[in-house]
Amino acid sequence: MKLKEETSDILVIGGGAAGCYAALTLAAERPERSVLLVDKAGIERSGCLAAGVNALNAYITPGHTPEDYADYAAADAAGIVRDDLLLTMSERLNEVTRRMEELGLVILKDADGNYVSRGWRNIKINGENIKPLLAAAVRRAKNVRVLEHVDVVNLLKAADGRIAGAWGIDLREDAVCYFRARAVICATGGAAGLYRSNHPGAARHTMWYSPFNTGAGYAMGLRAGAEMTSLEMRFIALRCKDTIAPTGTIAQGVGAPQVNARGEKYQAGYGNTTSERLYAVVSENLAGRGPCYLETQGITAAQEQSLERAYLNMAPAQTMRWRETGLGPRTANVEVEGTEPYIVGGHTASGYWVDTTRQTTVPGLFAAGDVAGGCPQKYVTGAFAEGAYAAEGAACYAAAQEVLPVPTEAAAAVRARVERLREQPAAAPLFTVDALEEAMQQVMDEEAGGITAGYRYTERQLAAAAHHIARLTRLSEGLRAEDAYGLLKIFELRERLLVCRVLIEHMKARRETRWHCFAENLDHPAREARYEKYVNSRLKDGRVEIILRDLVKRGQHYEHTLGN
Amino acid sequence: MSIRLETEKCIGCGRCADVCPGNLLVIEAGRARLRDARDCWGCTACVKACPRAAIFYTLEASLGGAGGRLYAENSRDTLTWVLRLADGEEQRIAVNKKQANDY
């Protein structure tokens, strides 16, 4: 394989919502800094906004404040959030929205020119092209270079622990890339594909979150010794059955209530947080009152048409399903189901443990978007806001740094390690990436609270899951690739296995049930005051170390201290 | 959930391979090839990017699919979705790009 070396002031890993916005911020505020944005795919459609997005779900509408938004997110997560991160994010939601409108995003306005809201924190847009708009703006930025179809595998650190860069695989040029930078922003998104999905088999990637977000950022951070928070706060989406299309558009758009098979509106009995809405469906099904539906029967023809168009702008499968069956939402209620669990810091609080500049515990490494923890309910605009903070933090940090020299032997050693994965053994390996991935997803599904387990687990099951994940990790050592894409599949599997391993330790450590479904521990079915703490972790000497930290509440803010 | 290629229409321009968020499309011998249909997310980025309508989206059998094919015609201001049902009926839904969703 070839060896390529690239140097920049700031390296941005991942060109999704947060990474692109970080690059745009650096272009606007620090044009003198050289920026390299590296993406696993092409930035026009990479990340979780590939198909588009239906609304901006994090916006401070008139009469509301950033504090309101932080309070809402804190209540939804039963208190396990970082107020300092939520407030700083919320303060920038409207600024980044205005910027997106300048870039061409269509936002619905009333006669007075004010944005039309869909609720007190949502505004209506046409978000089908949100990613192409971002990509075009990034490509116009003079100080930003974009490198696509390059999978970043691991971070590089200097001897004193500071970040020095990263390395990855150029999928098209079949090369090992070695990146050196003064500061690094990790914006690789969350993790899908840890658990068996709703439709294993031909439709295995019909899922809520991008199946190409494999937890790379969590894994590379863990390997570099970075601290993670709240991985046990899994996210499980409530979606339209089969198509796994969003439900919020129907629920909020036409005001459809949720009903069970008897036509009863059951939600009030369960509470109305994100996890409670899912728990309600799971419980109604278990009690024999399922399936559950969004009651759309009887909406107007105009409403049905609007729904069809809205879905085409983000999840065309749903519109196709309505048309193919001839049973549109006006005729038939829309059945709902829960997805498999994901780890995603844009919806729950899972991810890197960061300070308010979005710096991680590795000096010079910043994190934004779904990979950054402590700050749930980010949605798209929150990811932008975090990208902006991370960009400013990284630029400030980089100003005081030299590009750290990395000995050329190190790059050669990385290449040699990668090339070993291409050496074909005398006998074909017993297992394929697919086989190990399937086994991992089955273990997580059955033993660590997946769909078939009703999202519930016991400590004994978690111990079994840990045992199997360790076994599969050992088996993954024997995998070999024929080409660069094969290497990508091996690296993705290893990322997921590491995330699973640490996730299980987080689930073990929170010996309570703080959130139904998201972390439903049958051995400890109630909330316990002693777990009003963050469960954090890091890899130390090859072991997962769990750290319980005190909550950062209103009026407080957290900063890293040396040697934490 | 997956796309399918109508390879005979493909001109090998590579737009689909550039935009697929999963690197699932490759150009080989001047034609696009999908590495593994099971790995498709169904985002339809390639369907919208293809200049020859050589890629369509279909609902897998396990998702309740009935054999229809969903194509997209992408112009500057309008995205027109063309649904060819299994019985040959064609339905078109035009979405104005300058218009926000009602919901």
Q: Indicate the radius of gyration of chain A in whole angstroms.
A: 23 Å
Percent of sequence in beta strands of chain B: 25-35%
Count the DSSP helices of chain A: 14
Give the beta-strand count of chain B.
Answer: 7
Question: Mind explaining what this structure looks like?
Answer:
The complex is a heterodimer of chains A (564) and B (103). Chain A has 3 domains: 206 residues, FAD/NAD(P)-binding domain; 101 residues, Alpha-Beta Complex (Flavocytochrome C3, Chain A, domain 1); 130 residues, Up-down Bundle (Methane Monooxygenase Hydroxylase, Chain G, domain 1). In chain A, a hairpin with a 4-residue loop joins strand 9 and strand 10. In chain A, strands 1, 2, 7, 8, 9, 10 and 17 form a 7-stranded mixed sheet that branches. In chain A, helix 1 crosses helix 10, helix 12 runs parallel beside helix 14 and helix 13 packs antiparallel against helix 14. Helices cover 35% and strands 18% of the residues of chain A. Chain A is α+β, with helices and mostly antiparallel strands. By secondary structure, chain B is mainly beta. Chain B has one domain: Alpha-Beta Plaits (2-Layer Sandwich). In chain B, 10% of the residues lie in helices and 35% in strands. Chain B contains 2 helices and 7 strands. Chain B is globular and about 40 Å long. Chain B starts with a strand and ends in a 7-residue tail after the last strand. Classes of the chains: A alpha+beta (564), B mainly beta (103). At the A-B interface, strand 4, strand 6, helix 6, helix 8 and helix 9 of A face strand 6 and strand 7 of B.
